[in-house]
Amino acid sequence: MVHVADAMSVIGKEQFRVTRPYIFCHMMTSLDGKIMGNYMNHPAAAEAGEAFYRIAFGEKPYYRHQGWLSGRVTTDDNFTFYEKPALEENALPVPDGDFAAQPDFGMYYVSIDPAGRLGWKDAVLHYETTTAHVIEVLTARASNTYKSFLRSWGFLTLSPERKRLTRPWLCKSCARCST
Q: What is the overall mean pLDDT for the chain?
């Protein structure tokens, strides 16, 4: 089996067009399966985090991905820091469906935020030396005021207009963003 990244390094990125998302999962976990905790303060955790960044995002990354995905809590822990969104209560109605502000940004950060609770300050995320346009994945539980908040900042939003997300829908929707 050939990894997508290996094939791309051999034949060149321009000639190797991926027609579906290439997904890899990376997380550091404690022995009891938790992704956050005191173990993150150990020097080995810092070394592992630096190694992951070099492999996934560094100058010559092994993975040639167009983005990465995190849930709401991980996004709050690392990027929005539990800020509350500045919502305009008298927002005009936002049409149902997806919204693409910058469809060809290059690198995307996909944030799974079903109820629309993250307090973003910018539609562009900076993670060390990586810059990515944020894609907010919402459900029908997200309020009109939150959707309006995102559009006013130019966020790309995916909204299936249902109360639950499915993996096939998410993969298909993310693939549309990277083509």
A: 83
In three-state form (DSSP H/G/I as H, E/B as E, the rest C), the secondary structure along the chain is CCCHHHHHHHHCHHHCCCCCCCCCCCCCCCCCCCCCCHHHHCHHHHHHHHHHHHHHHCCCCCCCCCEEEEEHHHHHHHHHCCCCCCCCCCCCCCCCCCECCCCCCCCEEEEECCCCCCCCCCCEEEECCEEEEEEEECCCCCCHHHHHHHHHHCCEEECCCCCCCCHHHHHHHHHHHCC
> Phi and psi dihedrals of 67, rounded to 5?
175, 180
pTM: 0.80
Give the sign of the dihedral formed by CA 157, CA 162, CA 168, CA 172.
negative
Residue 12 has pLDDT above 60, yes or no: no
Q: What is the mean pLDDT of residues 101-107?
A: 78
